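hi!! sorry for the late reply, been swamped w classes. u asked for the two structures so here they r. pasted raw, havent cleaned anything up. first the sequence of the first protein and right below it the tokens
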Amino acid sequence: MDALHTAGIRFAEALQSGPPWLEKFWISVTSLADPKCIFTVCFPLAYYLDRKVGVSVLWIGLVSEWLNVVLKWFLFGERPFWWVHESGLVNKELVVLRQFPVSCETGPGDPSGHCMITGAALWPLVTALTALASRHSRSLAVKLSPFGAYALLQLAVGLSRIFVLAHFPHQVVSGLLAGAALGWGLQGRTPAASTPGFFVAAALALLLGSLALHSLVIAAGIDIDW
């Protein structure tokens, strides 16, 4: 893993050595793509456009957020900002990296929550826009434009997370793949006809489930907060 981590650090160095104007762009992307924006921005907008799509965004966002936390407990995953010091790489090789206010994230890093949760929750919105475009245009480029925008957004989010040293490239890739798979798999299983009480109960069940799982892992001698 050290070789993989070192390659990731070099990739981050290359990103940070880009034009100065890119710094503001990457930081803006990583801030706007924060998972909480799924619930505060994307869900209300999607719900306003179409109730079923909005509920799907909320449901998939909820499940993917929970699953991301659970996966991180088991996959762990170093954070680049901390790893360069803990591994001793800075004492062996020349490492030229810059720190940002959002660099010092703690906790396990695999898979990337930004990529996974955003990718999963936006999937139903993208498919709905694709269906809408297909009804109004015969152009293949127009039909594929929503997924093209989705792919570009996810790429930008992933690169921004590497740029600010929050994730290694392989953690970004795992987040992208997990997000797309979750979005595709859960879209057709959204309980769109359920009452608000169902979602409250589901959220409570996920919360209690995560607390119980956390206790079991700690009891097994695994330090989740390493």
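now the second protein. again sequence first, tokens right under
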Amino acid sequence: MTTIIEHVKPSDLKKDMNEMFREKFPHIKLTLSKIRSLKREMLRVAEECSLQPVTVAMAYVYFEKLVLQGQLNKQNRKLCSGACVLLAAKISSDLKKLEVQQLLDKLEERFRINRRELILFEFTVLVALEMALYLPESKVMPHYRRLIQKP
């Protein structure tokens, strides 16, 4: 017995997934691949700063809430993702001043954003999230499980 599976070019698969995502969420201005790319960058920054997986999971939840609200666009996507990491780190960790400085440095470097803009944008994100930074376990756990299962 044999089966034949048609080969699909990665670029075509990416295009199809982005199209399906756009059909399902027409109010979201970014593509699915761009959202995934931003989340990978968020993870890299968190790993470089030795943040816990639960902190990254919280940042992902904040980020996805903003995405679903239609708050992200091409101009503010990097500020949004950086602010989500910063807020999650502040709320879930006992960061010292030096560690916050290091995190800001990494966010500034990785996302190529201005530190002052990021700090100002942090409040905008906080308002968009309706000050609800403490998240129920049910929202954080799916992301957390996926993060700790990665090889």
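hope this helps!! also noticed smth abt the second:
The radius of gyration is 17 Å.
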